[in-house]
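User: Could you write out the 3D structure of this protein bound to 6-chloroguanine? I've included everything you need below.
Assistant: Certainly. Input first, then the structure.
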Amino acid sequence: MRIDIITVLPELLESPFSHSIMKRAQEKGLLEVLTHNLRDHTPYKQGQVDDYQFGGGAGMVMMPEPLAILIELLQKDRKYDEVIYMTPDGPLFSQKAANTLSLKENIMIICGHYKGIDERIREHYVTMEISIGDYVLSGGELAAAVVVDAIGRLLPGVLNDETSALFDSFQDGMLAPPVYTRPADFRGWKIPDVLLCGDPKVISEWRHEQSLKRTEERRPGLLEE
Ligand code: 6GU
């Protein structure tokens, strides 16, 4: 999968994909993440990409022309399955959306800043909008990093048995069960006996019960879905 990200802050997106699982996904050739600095593509002087909003009001708006130029430049080389605009007024991101996006070949992500991007870009180029939660970030970059991470780890071959996504929270509509590692007795705090019983079926049933209990207590809405 290839992901092209349009941003005015490419530096902000360097580290998130340079470590751990995202790094391995790229080294294995399963994921390609490219950032494009919008300022390198603006026809306006001094790298200008934003301007005052028509009708007045505080805050700048990202101008349509630099975005259209860069989007069309990218679209010349490949067909994008989705052109995603990261925005707090978009639909909420979910594991289900991550699963669906992980099946795509080419994705473009536009990171907004200031008051957002000119509405005409949303109307004419954007095919999907994503918000990662009901709070406002100063730009779409951190949200884009969240989305790329959630998608990237689902690509076949990225995770191994140790990191498998099969038993993640949300993957079956439930939260994950509690987990423990050595020592079995830490300062007198003992792990549940059942985990030492050696019967995979009994342990699997216990984990399922724990998942259900956690989900009922913390996120009952998930069970209704
Ligand atoms: Cl995608 N962008 C911004 N700027 N803020 C957000 C967001 C996105 N999702 C939640 N808050």
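Strands lie at 2-7, 32-37, 50-52, 60-62, 82-86, 106-111, 128-130, 185-186, 189-190.
User: Perfect, thank you.
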